[in-house]
Amino acid sequence: MFAWGVREGHLAATPFKFGTETVIRLDPETARDKRFESEDDEARVLQAATLHLRDVIIALLDTCCRPGELLSLQWKDVDLERREITIRRTKAKTRKARLAPISSRLLAVLEMRRLSPSGEALGPEAYVFGDEVGRRRKSVRTACENVCETAGLKGFHLGDLRHEAASRFEEAGVPVSHVSKLLGHGSLMTTTRYLSCTRRMIHQAVRKLEDSREKSDPLASSLQDPADQTLFGARTSGRPNTDKPLPPK
Questions:
Q1: Based on the domain organization, do 18 and 87 belong to the same domain?
Q2: Residue 21: inside a domain
Q3: Amino acid 195: pLDDT
Q4: Tally of domains within the chain
Q5: Higher pLDDT, 9 or 51
Q6: Which pTM value belongs to this model?
Q7: What is the distance of C-alpha 97 from the center of its chain?
Q8: Residue 69: pLDDT over 80
């Protein structure tokens, strides 16, 4: 607000700067790395959640959207045939429009939510993750954190679902530049703060290494001829041994 006042000419200076030097500096934000530790964590959360909250959690995990972006999403911004969600710039934190893909399980959720209790399709102005008749719901933060605690995930926040979603896309082999687009970030540096490795993934990394060794060792053994080795056990690639025998001592 002080910076705005200076730009508009209402103030001569801001107390946060002395000349061009910033007086008050904020400590860098510590990136959260809270994630589901096992495949059962997500199942327990979804089982403990209400139907509405369950749908929101699935959408968060499958789109990387922010909670506010989903709660403000209207049916006019959803294309079920193309399986795309449009996040309008007026509803995005970065004020930049973007597309979010619709997964198969999210498609099933949206098709169920598309109908009102009377069985008629909700209008284009209705909110996708609103109540039964499409009226907007403003927040699910407290409900989500209560459900996570009930499921045994203490300290798991609503925003952690976005970190979980981004990390899943990256682990699935999606390039970080594409994950950045899904998140709606302006820089890759911001995106890397969202990507974190779980204990499960660390163990999977070791298993992948061991699987790679198991696949390569039999191949190496089948190619290696015990009679076709040098003094240090290296293969000679089928070349005739032209080395002269060592003279007897």
A1: no
A2: yes
A3: 62
A4: 2
A5: 51
A6: 0.66
A7: 19
A8: yes
Residues 23 and 49 in one domain: no
Structure tokens at 110: 């949206």
Amino acid (1-letter code) at residue 248? P
Same domain, 19 and 142: no
User: What CA–CA distance (Å, rounded) separates 176 from 190?
Assistant: 11
- The secondary structure of 175-237 as a DSSP string is -HHHHHHHHT-S-HHHHHTT----HHHHHHHHHHHHHHHHHHHHHHHHH--TTSB-TTS-B-T
Give the whole-angstrom CA distance, residue 161 versus residue 143: 14
Q: In terms of residue numbers, what domain contains 112?
A: 39-199
9 domain-assigned: yes
Per the model's pLDDT, the better-predicted residue between 25 and 149 turns out to be 149
Confidence of residue 169 (pLDDT cuts 50, 70, 90): confident
Do 18 and 117 fall within a single domain?
no
Quote the tokens at residue 193: 């703060």
Residue 93 forms beta bridges with which residues? none
Same domain assignment for residues 185 and 131: yes
CA distance linking residue 134 with residue 125, whole number of Å? 8
**244 within domain boundaries:** no
Pick the more confident residue, 143 or 198. Answer: 143
Tell me the Ramachandran region of residue 184: left when phi exceeds 0, alpha when psi lies from -120 to 50, beta otherwise.
left
Indicate which CATH number applies to the domain containing 187: 1.10.443.10
Q: Strands 98-101 and 84-87, how do they pair?
A: antiparallel
Residue 171 banded pLDDT, cuts 50, 70, 90: confident
Asked whether residue 71 falls in the same domain as residue 147, the answer is yes
